[in-house]
Design brief:
Length: about 160
């Protein structure tokens, strides 16, 4: 019986450790995406091509940081949308006229907002699964070698 108790305690400990390792990068990614959106808004409101490019460059740097954090967090949808936004920032830098550049800023901002929504979903998922806010049952690991059978009383076999 003590072996079962220890197994359950270790399982809960490993799940909580996993959540703490992944939530911090998710929070960082969210913050970087939010910073990128603010930079895109400044770029869109400017009347000068030089300022537009400077704000877009700041947004691109925030997107790159967000992509690294999203990859570490494991939120692939946010990573993909942020990548699409970063690709659009390159088009801003290569645009032939101010109107085209504004269009690409708008597109990049849209992708960044999409990435922010995906990141919000990932953060909510971590809260639900790992912080016990809506935890109804124990999530089992996906790896077949670490699955623990649970009998009808809830004890590990």
């Amino acid at each position: 019986m003590s072996l079962r108790f220890i197994t359950i305690v270790l399982l809960f400990t490993s799940i909580n450790t996993f959540s703490f390792q992944n939530k911090k990068p998710c929070n960082k990614a969210y913050q970087h995406l939010d910073d990128a959106i603010l930079s895109f808004e400044k770029a869109y409101r400017t009347d000068h091509s030089k300022d537009l490019r400077n704000f877009t460059n700041k947004a691109k740097n925030s997107l790159l940081k967000a992509m690294n954090a999203a990859k570490e967090c494991g939120c692939t949808d946010a990573l993909s949308a942020a990548l699409d936004g970063a690709i659009e920032t390159k088009k801003v830098m290569k645009a032939n006229n101010f109107e085209d550049a504004l269009y690409y800023v708008s597109m990049s901002r849209n992708y960044t907002e999409e990435a922010l929504e995906y990141m919000s979903d990932c953060l909510l998922e971590y809260e639900v699964l790992f912080e016990g806010k809506v935890l109804d049952s124990l999530p089992l690991p996906k790896e077949p070698h670490s699955i623990i059978a649970i009998d009808s009383l809830g004890w590990a076999k």
